[in-house]
Amino acid sequence: MGLHEVTLRPGFWQRRQHTSRTASFDHIEHWLERAGWLGNFGATVEGRRGREFSDSEVYKYLEALAWAGDPAYEDRFHAIVARVAAVQQPDGYLNTNFGRPGQAARYSDLEWGHELYCYGHLIQAGVARARTHGHDDLVTVAVRAADHVCDTFGPDGIGSVCGHAEIEPALVELYRVTGNRRYLDQARLFVERRGRQVLDDIEFGRAYFQDDMPIREARVLRGHAVRAVYLASGAVDVAVETGDTELLEAVARQWRATVARRTYLTGGIGSRHQDEAFGDDFVLPPDRAYQETCAGVGSIMLAWRLLLAEGNPRYADLIERVLFNVIATSPSDDGTRFFYTNTLHQRVPGIEPAADTLVPRAASSLRAPWYAVSCCMTNLARTFSSLAAYLATTDDDGGVQLHQYTPASIRVGDIGLDIDTEYPADGRVTIRVVSAPETAWTLTLRIPHWATEATLDGVPVAPGLAAVRRRFTAGDTLVLDLAVRPRLTFPDARIDAVRGNAAVERGPVVYCLESLDLPPGLTVDTVRLDPAAEPVDRDGAVIVTGHIHPGHDTSWPYGPPPAPSLADSVEIPLHPYHRWARRGPSTMRVWLPTT
Ligand SMILES: [Zn+2]
Q1: How far, in Å, from the CA of 373 to the mean position of ligand 1?
Q2: Residues, CB within 5 angstroms of ligand 1 (ion)
Q3: Whole-angstrom Cα distance, residue 365 to residue 512?
Q4: What distance in angstroms lies between residue 136's CA and the mean position of ligand 1's atoms?
Q5: Cα(347)–Cα(343) distance, rounded to whole angstroms?
Q6: I need a labelling partner for 315 at 20 to 30 A (CA). Which of 511, 555, 560, 563 fits?
Q7: What is the pLDDT of residues 468-523, one digit of tens each?
Q8: Spatial distance between the Cα atoms of 462 and 135, rounded to a whole number of angstroms
Q9: Rounded Cα gap, residues 91 and 147, in angstroms
Q10: In angstroms, what is the span from residue 295 Cα to ligand 1's centroid?
């Protein structure tokens, strides 16, 4: 559905979207100017600032503005587009970091140069504008850049790919909005070329940019997490538009293996700090969880494409998990600070960065106002701006499928639905039919896999899909009740880093313990959870039963088995992981050792 067909209404996600569309937009533009990423358009070679990919932050911000479509930002949008357009070369080339006297030559560093990656974000911004507004200046710039890419990297051109996938999904999206088959063919060429060692080997190995093996042969997502999910997204786009079922199944197979073996409880991905990459199977250490916010965004991009292609509710389950536990975690309540990485175990209280600080490290211990690599903030902004589009779909039979539950209005064709819910705090979802055609149609609801108890209008429904086919009339109401209550979750024994631990989930939300909720002087590492005691809701927190084991420093932290605990039981309050570090510095852990 288009963004004109689905509107968020006040609730969990509308609050966050509103903050993004106001405070975060202003914050981002302020920092794009201040850090120099915007000033690079029009700057001298000597005056250029930032990393090789900084142009892309401007494009992602433009995409966020385009999806939001807020008239209040229209002048600013045009002013930025004018600065970008002024730098585009006559042949369509556009990058502030290459190609001018005194700079490296165009496409002389495909491994790290990010030129095609930047075009990808420029083109996605153009597509967002075309879909929400129509053809205007930004779309013209994007089309010229895309034509330049096809001219330069076509069958007779440079026979290589970009070190960071992103141009692939962008070109297919541009094909969809323009109908120009050339962009689809170029995207397919990029997808097929990669994996044949077309890029130079690098310190992290070619798997880092997925140039180690053809995508059709890969078993699992690997290498740099954001690169991996962006490439897979583009491959699904190519597969769907060309009817390539083999390619589609190759990506779906990798997605299933990645979810089964390389994904954190939160839905986040990436456990290697060194190269922001996937670890091997089951390498998911909580205190080294990298879980880049952008990898969460990319994971949603991929799962969304697979959902559209196959309709399997498992894809929407993962989107929900990432939304509530990665996307909702990163931004501060006021929309001006962000997590780049998302650890699941904070061993020492962090230090709040000053409001005017550009933090050089991705692994900031607390949310920071801006990073030297500023990818996550603009990625979040474009995701929040387009969030409504992920809630529901329609199909060729005129049916509507609801994938995510949050207050919203849907108006698609003759069908109008209003959705009300306190989800995820409460599991009741009320769907009111506002308008409906004279004929029967099917309303399909996703029943999350965690919802082992659920009813639709009082009738039990199993996890998966629940479909209702009938002739609806205005005023009809359906009530979905998902049993949202806290539960203990245990890891596969092969995830060694958390073996013997348990976590608490409530509906789609992962919980955590912060030291702020413990008696003074205790750290989260002193807590042992009693796995036989049921967690319970109380005053907005989840209460678990456990024991306190103050650690004793020894000269050697290994030895014979510890004596059984005789400590008294205590009640320990947990809060949603996405709320962590909002009350100030603390230690935190999601996985708690069991007694
Ligand atoms: Zn990022």
Answers
A1: 7
A2: 292, 294, 375-376
A3: 16
A4: 29
A5: 10
A6: 511
A7: 999 999 999 999 999 999 999 999 999 999 999 999 999 999 999 999 999 888 88
A8: 45
A9: 9
A10: 7
